[in-house]
Amino acid sequence: MRTGSDYRTSLDDGRAVHVDGELVANVAEHPAFAGVVDTMAGVYDAACVPGSPLVDPETGRLAIFTMPRTREQHERRKVALDEWSRLTHGFIGRGPDHVSGLLAGFASRPELFDTATHRLGKHVVGYHDSAAAAGLWITNSIVPPQQNPHDPTSRVTPVRLVEETEEGIVVDGAQMLGTGAAVADAIFVTSVRPLAPHESERALSFVVPIATSGLRLLCRRPYATAGSSFDYPLSARYDETDAMVVFDRVLVPWSSVFAAGDVGVINSQFFGTAAHQIGNLQSIVRLTAKLRFVTGVASLVVKANGRESDLAIKGQLAEIATIQTVSEALTEAAHARAEVDEYGLWRPAGKYLYAALGMQTEVYPRAVRLLGELAGGGVIQVPASLADLDDPVQAAAMEVVMGSDLLPVRERVKLFKLAWDVVGSEFAGRHVQYERFYSGSAAVVRGQAHRFYPFDEVEELVGGFLASYDGAGA
Q: Per-residue pLDDT averaged across 305-311, rounded?
C-alpha cells in the first residue's frame, strides 16, 4: 500500500510546474503546494492503518478504484468515498477518489474503446489495473480553453492529435482547469463536450504522467500562501491549485491511450459505460461532507454570538442544515437504489444522482451566503494575523473588543477566521465558483437530471387519474 512518504517522494520527478513566474523545483516543498501535499499524504497514511475503510480487503488496494460487480463491493466503495471525504471535509474536489471511478467505469466495458481503427479496450483495462495497484492520484482536464470564436486573431488551440507513431500518439495544444494537477501523479485528458464528426483531431482520451516531457502546468495564484494555518486554515490545507495544461508535442504511449481520432468513442465513453455515474457518486458524497462542515461552522458561529435561541437565526441555520440534509438524502438514495447495468456493474441511481448534481450549482453558494449572514461583521472584526495575538498590548486591547471567559479571544478569532476562509477569502470565492460549475454548466447538468427522471411513470400516474372521470359527472 502506498504511504504518504511514497506519495511525497514521487512528486520530486522533474515536472514542469510554473507559479508566480517560477519553475518549481520540488512541489512537495514549495509553500504553494506543501499544505495540500501534507493533507493528501495523511490520507495515504490513513489507508495504511490495518482495517482502514479506504482499502478493499479483497484486493488490498484503495477501494476507490473498485469496479463494483457485487452489492458488497458497491457498499465498500461507498464507505471508502465517505471516509475519503471525511478526511478532507469535501474540500479536495479532484482528489484520487474522482477519476478512479471514471477509470473503473471505462474498464467495465472495454469493448466500447475497440473500433475499426484502434483496439484500445485492453489499454483501458490495463491502465485501470496498474493505477489501482500503485494507488495513483489521477486528476483530469476535460475542458478546452475559453476562446472567442469571432476573433480571427485567436491563437487558442485546444489539445489535438498531431500524429500517431509506433510508440504512441503525439498531441499538442492546451486544456483548462487541471485541478490538483501540480500535486497529482497523472492527468486524464479528453473532451467532456460532445464532438462533431469533423472534430476527429480533438477526439482524444488518454492519461499522461505530470512529469512527461513537453507537458507544462501554468498555475493560478496559490491561496495556501495567504497566511498561517491559523489565519487561513482551509487555504493552507486544501488549496488544490488549478492549472492551465499546455502540451508541446507530447508523446503519449499507447498503453495509456483510450481513444485517438474516434469521435464516437469520445461521445459515448461517459454515458455508454458506467463511468459518469460511478465517478460522480464521489461528487455528491464530497458535496455532502462539505455542506456538513459548513453547517458545523455556522452552528458554532451562532453560539459564539449567543443567538441560538433567536427564532430568525434558527430559521437561517435550519436552512443550511436542510440543504445539507437534502444533499445527504439524495446521496444515500443514489447509493441505496443502485442497479446492475447490462455489463454487470452496480450504478448509482441516476434519478437521485443527477438531482443532487443539479442542485449543486445553487445549494453550496446558498449555504455560504447564509453562513456569511450569520457571521456578519464578526469575520471582519478579527486581527490581521496570529502575530497580533502574541503582542501583549494588542492582546489587552482585544479583550475590550471581544474578551470573554466563555469564549476566549484566541478561540473566537480562530473560529471567525475559519468562517472567513469559507465565506470571504480567495479560497472561499474559488470554492463557490468551483461548485457552480463542478459538473458543467447548469443547463447541461439539469439536462442530465431531466434525462434520468422517469417522466413516463408520473405521466402514467396522472393519465390514470384523468381516465377515472369525464365531464358527465363527478
A: 94
- Nearest alpha carbon to residue 436 among 349, 366, 332: 366
Q: In 305-349, which ranges are continuous DSSP H helix? A: 311-336
pLDDT at residue 445, as a whole number: 85
Task: Give the residue from 50, 47, 153 showing the smallest Cα distance to 100.
Answer: 47
Residues 163 and 181 both lie in one domain? yes
Computed over every residue of the chain, the mean pLDDT equals: 95
Residues 263 and 392 in one domain: no
Confidence of residue 437 (pLDDT cuts 50, 70, 90): confident
- Per-residue pLDDT of 348-393, as tens digits, reads 999 999 999 999 989 999 999 999 999 999 999 999 999 999 999 9
- Tell me the DSSP string of 369-430: HHHHHHHGGGGTSS-SSHHHHTSHHHHHHHHHHH--SSS-HHHHHHHHHHHHHHHTSHHHHH
Task: Tell me: do 227 and 340 sit in the same domain.
Answer: no
What the block records as the C-alpha cell of 214 is 513537453
- 292 with 169, same domain: the answer is no
- Tell me, what DSSP letter sits at residue 145? P
C-alpha cell at 67: 469496479
**Is 76 inside any structural domain?**
yes
CATH code assigned at 360: 1.20.140.10
Strand arrangement, sheet containing 243-253? 22-23, 16-19, 215-219, 243-253, 168-175, 160-164
- CA–CA dist 474, 472 (Å, integer): 7
Residues 14 and 64 occupy one common structural domain: yes
Look at the chain and report how many structural domains it folds into: 2
Q: To which H or E segment does residue 361 belong?
A: helix 350-375
How crowded is the C-beta side of 466, counted as CA atoms within 13 Å? 6
> Residue 43 corresponds to which cell in the numbers above?
490520507
CA 114 from centroid of its chain's CA atoms: 29
What is the residue range of 448's domain? 275-454
